């Protein structure tokens, strides 16, 4: 009987315990912070790819929506948390110059400046630039790889922004 109780206790403990680790853990006091607004990001980079700003803004809103319990309000309404900014860099750089003098790879770099206002805790306000890059073979045109690279850059930069604004690491 003691063995049965001991086994039942161990099984119960193992089943009820789980380890969870994630990079998108928001540190928000939902009793004080309830609303958020994310303004449309503008592309102010010298190289303009028309869908870039909208794609970035949508990805940013999606991540904040999925990973928080905040209620999103329109840009013209007051919010507890406000996020706005612009894409400041979207350019190509030749990399890995080969013996024939041509680049073997090209680097696509994207940078985003954000302004984060925490109207509940003003000491947590920040203005910061986040960037990421991806390299691709120079025998491909940017148009061939651009959408895939933008998706990767958006994900990386949005993760950086989320962690910098809502996570207490």
- The CATH topology is given as Double Stranded RNA Binding Domain
Distance between the termini: 47 Å
How many β-strand runs? 6
Q: Could you give me the name of the CATH homologous superfamily? A: Lipoprotein like domain
Percent helix: 25-40%
CATH class: Alpha Beta
Strand content: 25-35%
* Count of helical stretches: 3
Number of domains: 1
Order of helices and strands: HEEHEEEEH
Shape: elongated
What does the largest sheet look like?
A: 6 strands, mixed
Provide a short characterization of the protein structure:
α2 runs parallel beside α3. With 169 residues, the protein is of the alpha/beta class. It has a single domain, classed as Lipoprotein like domain (Double Stranded RNA Binding Domain), CATH 3.30.160.150.
Description:
This protein is of the alpha/beta class. The chain has one domain (29-166): Double Stranded RNA Binding Domain (2-Layer Sandwich). Helices cover 34% and strands 31% of the residues. The chain has helices at 2-16, 51-67, 142-166; strands at 35-38, 42-43, 71-72, 81-97, 103-118, 126-137. Strand 4 and strand 5 form a beta hairpin. It is elongated. The chain starts with a helix and ends with a helix. Residues 11-24 have low confidence and may be disordered.
């Amino acid at each position: 009987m003691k063995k049965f109780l001991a086994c039942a206790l161990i099984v119960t403990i193992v089943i009820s315990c789980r380890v969870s680790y994630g990079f998108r853990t928001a540190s928000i006091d939902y009793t004080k912070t309830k609303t958020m607004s994310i303004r449309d990001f503008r592309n102010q980079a010298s190289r303009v790819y028309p869908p870039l700003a909208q794609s970035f803004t949508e990805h940013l809103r999606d991540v904040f929506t999925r990973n928080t319990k905040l209620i999103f309000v329109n840009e013209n309404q007051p919010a507890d948390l406000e996020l706005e900014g612009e894409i400041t860099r979207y350019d190509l750089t030749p990399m890995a110059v080969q013996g024939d003098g041509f680049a073997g790879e090209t680097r696509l770099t994207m940078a985003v400046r954000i302004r984060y206002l925490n109207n509940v805790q003003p000491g947590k306000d920040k203005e910061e630039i986040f960037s990421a890059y991806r390299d691709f073979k120079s025998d491909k045109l940017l148009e061939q790889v651009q959408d895939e690279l933008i998706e990767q850059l958006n994900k990386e930069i949005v993760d950086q922004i989320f962690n910098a604004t809502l996570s207490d690491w």
